[in-house]
Amino acid sequence: MEQRHQDENETSNSGDYFVVKAKDQGVTVIGLTRGKDTRFHHTEKLDKGEVLIAQFTDHTSAVKVRGKAVVYTKHGIIDTEE
């Protein structure tokens, strides 16, 4: 069994993956920066059925999802319509 060690550049706040699956056309996924000023730093547009697999990093502390989608995380599944 392979054991993964944390890189020196990786912090305990980074590394978690999440998945966003669009249930409708035009779902927007926005990455928000880490630090004293929270800013938008990356945007992806998904069409119905498309899946985005992403990871929190030293630069990304939060993600905003606009539109009908299902978000899968290690903490559970979130449906934006519920």
TrEMBL record:
It comes from Paenibacillus motobuensis. It holds the Pfam family TrpBP. This is Transcription attenuation protein MtrB. Belongs to the MtrB family. Residues 14-81 form the Tryptophan RNA-binding attenuator protein domain. InterPro entries: MtrB, Trp_RNA-bd_attenuator-like_dom, Trp_RNA-bd_attenuator_dom. Oligomer of 11 identical subunits arranged in doughnut-like structure. NCBIfam families: PRK13251.1. Keywords: RNA-binding, Transcription, Transcription regulation.
